[in-house]
Amino acid sequence: MKISIPKFSRDAKLFLFGNFINGFGITGFNLLFNLYLKSKGIGEGSIGRLLSVGAYSTMLMVLPASFLIRKFSLKKIFTFTVLFLISGYLLAVISASLKSIFIGMIISGMCSAIFSCVGGPLIMEVSGPEERTLLFSFNFAISLSASIFGNILAGNLSVILNRFNITQEIALKFAIIIHLFIASFSLIPFLSIRDARIFDEEENIFKMHTKIGLILKLSTPHLLVGFGAGLSIPFLNLYFRDRFSLSTSTIGYFFSISQLTMIFGTLIAPFISKHKGKIITIVLSQIFSVPFLFILSVTNNLPIAFISFILRSSLMNMAQPIVTNFSLEMVDKNTRPFLSGLLTIAWISGWGLSANIGGKIIESKGYSLPFNLTGIFYIISSILYLRLLLPLEISREKNKK
């Protein structure tokens, strides 16, 4: 199997390009938003609650969205989602009151839910079995590439704006707004995708052919990973700032380097899964990341923390496209938007709940405990992957033969 863009269809390439532009823009928000809130004097506990409310909004909207999108074409879905996603983020940035910031996060969270229901099923439709795993990984790698350049721009843009005798708060605000403006251009390739639906139009929008038991098996391990990650990962930029007194530009470079190594891991993951199987690849990536979480929790040495940060990020993210690919292949076409949304719920519900908890723990006890709790949840998730999903994969491969 060659890693070659020409193997992908026109619609697949347009989707990849749109994801790159959108990811480049939204990265600036993701990197700078909690730093911006901190510059406004908002504490880690409140920041955690703001992150959580966006996550809860996504979680509550995902299942309705997975059914409602069956009534609309891709052009309408992309237009609505991108415009309102950016509008929600913009409201959160320009608002003076905490209440308005919460409203902005709710709007953007709901739109994120719609987008999460579209991507995976669309990739399934515009690819064949031979290139599908590679396309999932390539899409993830494209998103990471966008984040690399987005983090570099976001980290340096606020520093450059600071030179014009404006406060850090204002510099961070304008840097985020510029990134959101860039993200709006993702509409151009998205609206060039063939105007179609990603399900069988004659089917009832609430009809599914997949058993609920299978859906729960596919989503439960993902839920535990999301819960564990939410305890510490949203606060990694604050971790480097607080423990090592790093500037926003340096933090931006750290995240960009991390995403560069993730690209390498993501692109080799399909070849590992081809020989070891998808579930074993997922489990190995999670288990091997746990020691580096422990190192992050105890070290005060910046080079060691940086290396551990890089390796943990690469290992935990390299198999994520394979998780989505495996899950969507296990269900019928009309169930894919629902399952794609449910995987988002499994991730976001854990992330949203634990981000709130993690912020409070960090505020009172520091970063060590959340990192170690994250590792424990990764281990439990890996055990469930082996117990629940490995037998399904083995059975499926035998049936193919």
UniProtKB/TrEMBL annotation:
It holds the Pfam family MFS_1. GO terms for molecular function: transmembrane transporter activity. Keywords: Membrane, Transmembrane, Transmembrane helix. It comes from the Bacteria. Residues 214-401 form the Major facilitator superfamily (MFS) profile domain. The chain crosses the membrane at residues 12-33, 53-70, 77-95, 101-122, 134-154, 174-193, 214-239, 251-272, 279-298, 338-357, 369-390. InterPro entries: MFS, MFS_dom, MFS_trans_sf. This is MFS transporter. It comes from candidate division WOR-3 bacterium.
